[in-house]
Structure to design on (510 residues):
């Protein structure tokens, strides 16, 4: 049971309106009460924050915005005292343009060893005015930017699959892995329990950098014929990473792997590569029994190819909040609660994104506060991911709801969240938070939550019923109430009357 902390938005310890690590330490009692096993921390390393930490300028130090190294050391110690593990985000595919390596590459000019750490190429066409190939950035616009050479002349182009401030590293250069190994050991030696590996299907680039054939570039969609990602030689990199990780028994790696084909996705989980990987099928499924059933089957089948544990997530800082995806308002929330029971019934590792346990929706933010680079790079056609990154409401009746002592939070918090604060929900046995607490407690304590196999039981077309170990989970995505199997009811996301489960609801039975 992983809990994803988006540090900017979880809790602000120093009153600057941005969440930080002291804020996380101050809220550890809350996480302990939820009964999580581990925290996955989105990047906290030194960064100009062009992509909120996924642009790393120093991978072996903590940004002062989050409280610096001392704050992380304190968090690790305090979390460990509570039996909670800490998983950090590492970003091997690219650095920040402010990283000393990139600055050196700019200064050193074409043909230099410093440029060999990144992917610099001459442009095409007269004067090299055209980018080296047609690749596009995941955030929109071309994936190449042209530099001005030290002598002032228009110069080479560098590759950035994400923002302009996120130049891609050249993983064919052994210096790149050597430095990444240093980073892994640096954090593991400081007690970190593992890593979420950003864009784990990136890093390796195809020889000759051939053009993309499809330029459909929706954010983080997995297209298996995309030359920018999932190149076969990426697996050699994962094997090297695993050799380092294996020096630290118990440490875990979790890859962000946007690969659609199950066989190719499972390659990342071979015994000498990653331990866990996201496959995102459940997060991509609509609230439809057939789609959800297929996503579950598919995820189980993919992990089973290599005998790895499956992973489950309904939301994260990129894909948005499920309450909104499922229709927003009361219906969206009811469906999100139902899906929480589905997810938590399944075998393997589950990930809860901070605020999910409060039933938070995405926030419709005004244009002028948007910060996600996607907004600018897409020419204001894609609003980006800020709506799912709004700070968490903890207490009180008005923003900033105990998140910060400053009213000027990095994204504005909607007044309606007064009804969704942790404080309010803890005192209400019918709240989403109370429901999550109960679900997590049962998942931890009850012997029925065991076994790797999922067995489908007969159900009408707009419902799913499956058995895992001694537990039966029923989901009703339709309108008519669903007659539940004749068993003892353990927990339901909505009131069960006369053995009937209403629509947009799920139940656990034993
Ligand atoms: C991953 C992260 C995302 C980030 C991107 C670039 O997809 O989850 O937030 O923008 O990588 O590092």
């Amino acid at each position: 049971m992983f809990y994803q902390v988006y540090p900017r938005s979880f809790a602000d310890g120093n009153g600057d309106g941005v969440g930080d690590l002291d804020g996380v330490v101050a809220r550890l009692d809350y996480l302990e009460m939820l009964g999580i096993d581990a925290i996955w921390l989105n990047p906290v390393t030194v960064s100009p924050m062009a992509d909120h930490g996924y642009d790393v300028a120093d991978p072996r130090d903590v940004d002062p915005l989050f409280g610096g190294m001392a704050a992380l050391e304190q968090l690790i110690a305090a979390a460990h005292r509570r039996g909670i593990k800490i998983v950090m985000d590492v970003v091997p595919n690219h650095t920040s343009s402010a990283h000393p390596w990139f600055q050196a590459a700019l200064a050193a000019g074409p043909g230099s060893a410093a440029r060999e750490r990144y992917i610099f190429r001459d442009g095409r066409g007269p004067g090299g005015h055209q980018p080296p190939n047609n690749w596009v950035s995941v955030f929109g616009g071309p994936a190449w930017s042209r530099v001005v050479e030290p002598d002032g002349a228009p110069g080479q182009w560098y590759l950035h699959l994400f923002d302009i401030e996120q130049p891609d590293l050249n993983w064919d250069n052994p210096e790149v892995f050597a430095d990444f190994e240093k980073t892994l050991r640096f954090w593991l030696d400081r007690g970190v329990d593992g890593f979420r590996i950003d864009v784990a299907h990136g890093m390796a680039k195809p020889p000759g950098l051939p053009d993309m054939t499809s330029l459909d570039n929706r954010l983080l969609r997995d297209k298996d014929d995309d030359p920018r990602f999932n190149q076969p030689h990426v697996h050699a990199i994962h094997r090297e990473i695993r050799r380092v990780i294996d020096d630290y028994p118990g440490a875990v790696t979790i890859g962000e792997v946007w690969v659609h084909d199950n066989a190719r996705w499972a390659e990342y989980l071979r015994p000498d590569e990653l331990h866990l990987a996201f496959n995102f099928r459940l997060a991509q499924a609509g609230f439809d029994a057939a789609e959800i059933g297929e996503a579950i089957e598919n995820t189980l089948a993919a992990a089973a190819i290599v005998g790895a544990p499956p992973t489950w997530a309904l939301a994260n800082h990129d894909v948005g909040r499920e309450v909104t995806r499922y229709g927003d308002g009361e219906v969206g929330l009811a469906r999100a609660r139902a899906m929480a029971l589905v997810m938590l019934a399944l075998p393997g590792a589950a990930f809860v994104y901070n605020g999910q346990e409060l039933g938070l929706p995405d926030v419709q933010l005004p244009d002028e506060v948007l910060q996600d680079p996607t907004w600018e790079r897409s020419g204001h056609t894609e609003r980006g991911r800020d709506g799912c990154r709004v700070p968490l409401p903890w207490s009180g009746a008005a923003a900033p709801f105990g998140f910060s002592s400053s009213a000027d939070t990095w994204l504005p918090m909607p007044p309606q969240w007064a009804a969704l604060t942790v404080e309010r929900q803890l005192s209400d046995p019918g709240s989403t938070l109370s429901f999550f607490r109960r679900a997590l407690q049962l998942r931890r304590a009850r012997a029925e939550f065991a076994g790797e196999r999922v067995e489908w039981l007969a159900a009408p077309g707009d419902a799913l019923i499956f058995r895992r170990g001694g537990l039966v989970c029923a989901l009703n995505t339709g309108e008519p109430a669903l007659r539940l199997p004749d068993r003892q009811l353990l927990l339901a996301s909505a009131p069960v009357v006369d053995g009937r489960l209403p629509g947009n609801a799920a139940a656990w039975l034993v």
